[in-house]
Amino acid sequence: MTQDFKIGPLNHVGVAVPNIQEAMDTYRTLYGATDITEPFDMPAQGVKVCFVNLPNSQIELIEPLNEDSPIHNFIQKNPRGGQHHVCFEVEDINVAVAEMNARGATVLGEPRIGAHGTMIVFVHPKNSNGVLVELMETPKDGHH
Ligand code: CO
């Protein structure tokens, strides 16, 4: 059963930014994006987040809340921001974690609530050509 595990749709691309308001302005004025959600804080994750909604996906803008933020170092190394992760949907986060581990991947930490309100977990970039991968349980209401 679990050997059938596979990733689902690309849910979003995470972009770390030094200033979320300026990044939102860029998506509005440079790219004409009209559907951008209000930023909200996720203190447990150490980030401020908003979503640029696109017809087929989202850009997740992430600003560090403080120097303890997991993306603080990323912004130190990339002061103008940069692509931080890609997120694929999975049906069941626990099946995903078990199968990723069985396939030899390095899963980072325990599943936790992500910015979309469903369970997420990250897979080490060394397993995916340098790309940090987020696995996210598909929202049950089907809303992405
Ligand atoms: Co994300």
SSE blueprint and pairings:
Elements: E1 10-16, H1 20-29, E2 40-42, E3 47-53, E4 58-64, H2 72-77, E5 82-90, H3 93-102, E6 107-113, E7 119-123, E8 133-137
Parallel strand pairs: 1-4, 5-8
Antiparallel strand pairs: 1-5, 2-3, 3-4, 6-7, 7-8
Bound molecules: cobalt (II) ion (CO).
Cobalt (II) ion (CO) binds next to strand 1 and strand 5.
Task: Give the overall shape.
Answer: globular
Percent range of helical residues:
10-25%
Low-confidence stretches: none
Q: What is the percentage of strand-forming residues? A: 25-35%
CATH superfamily: 2,3-Dihydroxybiphenyl 1,2-Dioxygenase, domain 1
* CATH-derived topology: 2,3-Dihydroxybiphenyl 1,2-Dioxygenase, domain 1
CATH class: Alpha Beta
Mean pLDDT: 94
Largest sheet: spatial strand order = 2-3-4-1-5-8-7-6
Which molecules are bound in this entry? cobalt (II) ion
CATH architecture classification: Roll
Number of strands: 8
Q: What integer value in Å does the Rg equal?
A: 15 Å
Structural class, judged by helices and strands? alpha+beta
Distance between the termini: 26 Å
Main β sheet profile = 8 strands, mixed
Count of helical regions: 3
